[in-house]
Amino acid sequence: MFKPPLTLQTTTLWNYPSQNYGNQTQGxxxxxxxTPSYVIWNLLMRYTKEGDMVVDPMCGSGTTIDVCNDLHxxxxxxxxxxxxxxxxxxxxxxxxxxxxxxxxxFIDPPYGDNxxxxxxxxxxxxxxxxxxxxxxxxxxVIEEIHRICKPKHSMGLYVCDYYNKKxxxxxxxxxxxxxxxxxxxPVDIIAVARHNKTLAMGNYHRAAEEGNFFxxxxxxxxxxYKE
Length: 227
What we know:
25% of the residues lie in helices and 24% in strands.
């Protein structure tokens, strides 16, 4: 697969055909819900400098850690179900971080319960996006991000909306953005084109035409600032 060169993005539409940049991988591209490493690279290039502390409260397969290592940033990666040894076990609603200690926070949370991330009962990925419980849990996570983020510093939240035939459309992005606004000042909203394998399958597109619904074509990346 073609991998574009690492270039600082200058518009609010980011489109990457591959999960990882360069000759190495960042995180595990086979991990369900893995964040494209280009996204994290661009955020860290804009909002951090060498030696800064980056925190990822839901670190998944460790993509943020690997990008930080490439860019000579320090990183604390947490997850309720650590995927590898350098990720520390913690619930994103109760992080073992000092207040006002992170130069940048990046988070790519579950988009409801469409992926089985773990058997941890407290995993937010067990909560359906149609429930208020999911958004209440994410509100606590966002409060924690605000607590640990240094004043006059930024954070990024990467998320996708949700649709299935049973539940219909759930605007997760807009709902989480409204929670973020209670704590942070908005910097910008990025649309990141999705290259999910299912989008290359004709039967999915036929189903969308016949069922009169839309496949998810992009993720939001909300960039926020702590005043």
